[in-house]
Specification:
Length: about 110
C-alpha cells in the first residue's frame, strides 16, 4: 500500500501486518490518484536472462498491493517489453504461480 494514501496511513497507524490481504486495494488503486500525481516508484533494471525475468515478474506480483495489468508490471522495470512481460504473466498463470482476474489483471 502507498503510505501517502489514506488507507496506507490508517494501516500504518493501526500497525497492520504487511502480509495481510487488503479487502479493496484494486478499487482504491484505480481511484486514488484521479487528479493527483502518483508516487514515484523507482524502476528496477530489467534482468538479462529468462530465469531472472520470471523471478523479477513474480516478485513484483507478490509484493503488489493488488492485481496488476501487464503494462503496470512492465512499467516497474527499465527496458522491459510489455509483450514479454505479458507472456511471462500468462505463463505464470498457466503454471499456477499467478492468477488472472476476470478483467485481465494478474495476482501473485
Amino acid at each position: 500500500m502507498y503510505i501517502n494514501s489514506p488507507i496506507g496511513q490508517l494501516s500504518q497507524k493501526l500497525d497492520v501486518c504487511q502480509h495481510a490481504v487488503p479487502v479493496f486495494p484494486a478499487v482504491f488503486a484505480e481511484t486514488a490518484y484521479i487528479g493527483a500525481a502518483k508516487p514515484n516508484i523507482k524502476k528496477q533494471p530489467w534482468p538479462k536472462g529468462l530465469p531472472e525475468w520470471i523471478a523479477a515478474v513474480r516478485s513484483e506480483l507478490n509484493t503488489a498491493a493488488g492485481p496488476m495489468h501487464s503494462d503496470d508490471v512492465a512499467g516497474r522495470f527499465t527496458r522491459a517489453r510489455k509483450t514479454d512481460v505479458g507472456e511471462l504473466l500468462e505463463t505464470l498463470a498457466t503454471l499456477g504461480h499467478a492468477r488472472q482476474t476476470e478483467d485481465g489483471r494478474f495476482v501473485g
